[in-house]
Amino acid sequence: MSRSEGLLARLRDGLPAEALLTDPDVTASYANDMASFCPAGTPAVVVLPRSVEQVQHVMRVATELGVPVVPQGARTGLSGGANASEGCVVLSLVKMDRILEINPVDRIAVVEPGVINATLSRAVNEHGLHYPPDPSSWEMCTIGGNIGTASGGLCCVKYGVTAEYVLGLDVVLADGRLMSTGRRTAKGVAGYDLTRLFVGSEGSLGIVVGATLALKPQPPQQLVLAAEFASARAACDAICAIMEAGHLPSLLELMDRTTVKAVNDLANMGLPETTEALLMCAFDTADPAADLAAVGALCEAAGATQVVPADDAAESELLLQARRLALNALEAVKGTTMIDDVCVPRSRLGDLLEGIERIAEEHKLTIGVCAHAGDGNTHPTVCFDAGDPDESRRARESFDAIMGLGLELGGTITGEHGVGVLKKEWLARELGPVGLEMQRRIKEVFDPLGILNPGKLF
Amino acid sequence: MSRSEGLLARLRDGLPAEALLTDPDVTASYANDMASFCPAGTPAVVVLPRSVEQVQHVMRVATELGVPVVPQGARTGLSGGANASEGCVVLSLVKMDRILEINPVDRIAVVEPGVINATLSRAVNEHGLHYPPDPSSWEMCTIGGNIGTASGGLCCVKYGVTAEYVLGLDVVLADGRLMSTGRRTAKGVAGYDLTRLFVGSEGSLGIVVGATLALKPQPPQQLVLAAEFASARAACDAICAIMEAGHLPSLLELMDRTTVKAVNDLANMGLPETTEALLMCAFDTADPAADLAAVGALCEAAGATQVVPADDAAESELLLQARRLALNALEAVKGTTMIDDVCVPRSRLGDLLEGIERIAEEHKLTIGVCAHAGDGNTHPTVCFDAGDPDESRRARESFDAIMGLGLELGGTITGEHGVGVLKKEWLARELGPVGLEMQRRIKEVFDPLGILNPGKLF
């Protein structure tokens, strides 16, 4: 019996037949997430468990045989964090997709990891509640995947990232034991915060099989304003002025000239070609029109050439469409994109955008930037022809140059996409030798055999 | 040369004379924080460093000689977490008290650990900013101590606890190496969240020597409402109704009959003796009077016998005075108090309060409860005569009964005070064997010799 046959036989001991995918054509389709430039191996098998016990069985077998396990959600990640290792068990949690509880008094939801973000968001809406984290992939991505990468989204400038909504977790450890972390309560400080340690750990410490999430009351419908600027620097000045004045926008996004042009070309939206930067700001406060008027005045003071506040939800939605199309539009420019995720203190956003323009010129590349600008979190997106080896090489090099610039400006190499395989060497640079050593030693505590999503992060 | 003389000689190598306290009368005064029933040893020496390098020197010497180190802030803790071990170095961070930066655009402050909470709060106010965490001891306690115990306060129902405001840390490890965690940016997911691991770790993983804190814009002045109820259950029903209706109060506090009576006796505040529970609710929204009117109606629907909304800041302050006096008033009842810190899902608050009444009767004790009710976080406070051994024994037993009840109701043994020495055995019960084992192994990663605040937490 080959090694792979032995693995399958042991897995079958505790799993129904339909939980195992072994057809190589099928399993190969589970090899990658949505990141560019990230190598992936060939899975030995894909397991689709439906219960905690089945996950525990998989991990016991993996520990017994020393086989790597790669946990996956919807594979919408952008750093290769869900890419298969050679000969691994892909552990796809998408069938564990029940919402077990929604409690409006305690403002919590208890869910399995495979619940789609949008499904949960809509379900809690029906109880007058709001689950804020809204990554762009929210119609596809799973809560488990969001927890794995500590996902962000458009709402973070007011509502923060996924990490701030995870109160407690059920985790299957590498050896198959079940551990519960955290709490159902609003507060709690009993011992080290292992919940937060697992959020953003990219499946490298254990398998999240359940989560207790904090919810907010549903806010009023947000109202959006768009402002055009003749330079990226002026738009960034406006952002700094808005935040310095104490505003709490529910969204504060920026698209640079390249992105605006790409959206115009794709969707013929009638955005003026003279726009060098487009800022979008929204409020979901009691009187959003008043807040937008104040922000509009700050934009004009910073040199906005046009300020367009929406009058109602429909107009707001129209303004946001341009932002939603940004990544597709940039992909249409040259066929392939590489999306970065550098976050700097928002006071340095202007320096970052000007630096990225310089890097694009130096590398003779088209780089569009859309940004969760209120957070200083940018997605510089290199548009290139993957069939052109020289352009591909320059794209890769520009990517490194941008991360280097981000660190120089006091930023981080990843605001919300995670490290995966894409940014491993950069993680070491950001953490420094002491931080890296302590992180590796924590990994060893939870995964002494190194079977949990090996080759990611470090 | 004795062991103690050897320690002092090595410490003097890297510290100025004024940084060392060795007079036994003086060092003895550093033995305890403010918890009852917590044993403490006698410090060998108290060190008051003024720089990161001095802290590093202390930790290098402690590692070299295997001497325990107990980090301290203002010693206002309530779980014995800052109590000295026998023969330890007390490392008091109170002289490292500089505010290094306040940045209104990035909404961050960079501070040393010895800064007093109120000093920071007032300093950021001058920039139109707000540092929400407000433990009752905020005029005395330090930010480093707040980080060590992940402190809460009155604001948490809207603004969350200290943990949510710590973006990055500088930490001196057990062996004297300096590690930086986290970031200055609004978002960041580069590697495991070691920042959050340190928050609430009670000085058992390393010495926090610097912190980057998130700030909020200063909210409008809050307006307070007081509501009287004829039973604790009715007050808890009101709390559930307020939260279920989607309100976001900036404060939602509860005092039970015993506490109301104690405050009346102490300060002659004219609170009606018929009051079985007093609820206080505040809003710092754009239109707090409207929010208070809505909440007042919910209180009446739940059976409030009187609802008193304040008209302005001065009246609000007057209403809050009763709450602020609660702990002092309970201490005046019998001379000594033991303050617990059990947190349950807010939907179980009524069950907890009725259970505590039962426990008080069974143990023939006076137990007053004041609670951060919006969070389900109660402070059952046993009033007893420390000179009466039988009453002291019953006080200790009731304390255990209350924690057991809290866990039964799906709660935690500590919402905001931490574990220290007071709740060590209860931590094991809350975490379970797997969780406890993983927590201990994380401790070993950072503190292989077991010299950092030994005997706390586990």
From TrEMBL, chains A, B:
It comes from Streptomyces roseirectus. Residues 39-218 form the FAD-binding PCMH-type domain. The keyword Methyltransferase does not apply. Its cofactor is FAD. Belongs to the FAD-binding oxidoreductase/transferase type 4 family. InterPro entries: FAD-bd_oxidored_4_C, FAD-bd_PCMH, FAD-bd_PCMH-like_sf, FAD-bd_PCMH_sub2, FAD-linked_Oxase-like_C, FAD-linked_OxidoTrans_Type4, Oxid_FAD_bind_N, Vanillyl_alc_oxidase_C-sub2. It comes from the Bacteria. The keyword Oxidoreductase applies. Keywords: FAD, Flavoprotein, Oxidoreductase. PROSITE patterns: FAD_PCMH. One of its GO terms (molecular function) is oxidoreductase activity. Pfam families: FAD-oxidase_C, FAD_binding_4. Gene3D superfamilies: 3.30.465.10, 3.30.70.2740, Vanillyl-alcohol Oxidase, Chain A, domain 4. This is FAD-binding protein.
